[in-house]
Specification:
The protein has helices at residues 6-22, 35-45, 50-63, 67-71, 75-82, 89-104, 113-116, 124-135, 144-153, 163-178, 183-196, 215-219, 280-286, 329-333, 339-346; strands at 235-244, 251-255, 266-267, 270-273, 292-301, 305-314, 324-327. The protein has two domains: 6-219, Hypothetical protein, domain 2 (Endonuclease III, domain 1); 235-346, Nucleoside Triphosphate Pyrophosphohydrolase (Alpha-Beta Complex), CATH 3.90.79. The protein is built from 15 helices and seven strands.
Length: 352
């Protein structure tokens, strides 16, 4: 780490001061910060917008108000509370992390990065975020927002995904946070600045607290920095789901395997194919041999997959399979469902 300069100190002070005056009111931003809330919110915020988490966080905390209550919860209950947020591995890791905190740290979320890194699902960014925000420790953080802010401040026209760039960004983040009077306010300010002011497109530079020290602004290149990331190659998945109701109005549902996409979640009887749309024969098999009627089609996008869903209806089979069960609409709402299955089974995409 390089020795902080006066410019570094000024940048850190400006961002921390700006955050204290302009932070958005989120339910996990308590005074003082709650380490358990930090653990939960950081898990939720990975790859999900803060505005959406602001709606779901209080519901999750109401169900699991302490690390102990989360640790002793059933995994299916945890996944059900996570329904619609996507990336369900985060929920499983959070559950396991809570169990480790209870078993190995007497139910107290650790304050040091080394211990935090030993928890399931906790990487360098999340460990630094919890240590700095909840415990005001001078630990660096680098996420997508911070990458953009740092590259623009330094006028660095570098590919964000390259190892050398990442190394430079972590070193700059460390230098800046160690020069801050309040590491917590500085780190939250960096993330907030990237989310609200130093946005990917049309940044609001005139409202930025470090506009006079931003090299990209001086060069008029804030629209060019950072360099665009290469788009990940999308895998196409064709899926067919069958909606089946019995005479009591219950729907037939099944649990997915414990590995792979949407592991352990519930769904309508579904068949998937990478090559082409499932054949009628394949669909009739999951429909219990009954005739099928096409209802609708839709697409669902994830970070690396494009799902083409076709939804069918069928009469109830004479016998359900071992991994299937009948459930009412109310029961289905209490289960862990991926967003496409919310739409298929309940007519709800989880955005409300």
């Amino acid at each position: 780490m390089s020795k902080p300069t006066k410019r570094d100190q000024a940048i850190a002070a400006s961002i921390a001061g700006w955050f204290i005056e302009n932070d958005r009111d989120f339910p996990w931003r308590t005074t003082p910060r709650n380490p358990y809330y930090a653990l939960v919110s950081e898990a939720m915020l990975l790859q999900t917008q803060a505005a959406r988490i602001a709606e779901r966080f209080p519901v999750f905390i109401d169900r699991f108000p302490t690390v102990d209550s989360l640790a002793h919860a059933d995994e299916q209950d945890v996944l059900a509370q996570w329904s619609g947020l996507g990336y369900y591995r985060r929920a499983k890791n959070l559950h396991r992390a809570a169990q480790r905190v209870v078993d190995e740290h007497d139910g107290v979320v650790p304050s040091d990065v080394e211990s935090l890194l030993q928890l399931p699902g906790i990487g360098r960014y999340t460990a630094g975020s919890i240590a700095s925000i909840a415990f005001d420790k001078p630990e660096p953080i680098v996420d997508g927002n911070v990458v953009r802010v740092l590259l623009r401040i330094e006028g660095a026209d570098l590919p964000p995904t390259e190892t050398a760039t990442k190394k430079m960004l972590w070193e700059r983040a460390e230098t800046l946070v160690k020069s801050a009077d309040s590491p917590a306010a500085f780190n939250e300010g960096m993330m907030e600045l990237g989310a609200t002011i130093c946005t990917p497109r049309s940044p609001s530079c005139q409202e930025c607290p470090v506009r006079t020290r931003c090299k990209a602004k001086k060069q008029g290149r804030q629209g060019e920095i950072p360099m665009p990331k290469p788009k990940p190659k999308q895998r196409i998945v064709h899926a067919a789901s069958v909606v089946i109701r019995d005479k009591q109005g219950r729907m037939l549902i099944e649990k997915r395997d414990d590995s792979g996409m949407w592991a352990g979640l519930w769904q309508a009887p579904t068949v998937e194919s990478d090559d082409k749309a499932p054949s009628k024969t394949m669909i009739k098999v999951i429909a219990g041999g009954k005739q099928i009627k096409r209802l609708n089609t839709f697409e669902h996008q994830t970070s690396h997959r494009t799902f083409h869903f076709t939804v069918y209806a069928a009469a109830p089979p004479s016998r359900r399979k071992a991994h299937q069960r009948w459930a009412t609409d109310a029961q289905i709402r209490s289960l862990a469902l991926a967003r496409p299955q919310m739409r298929i089974l309940l007519g709800d995409d989880g955005s409300g």
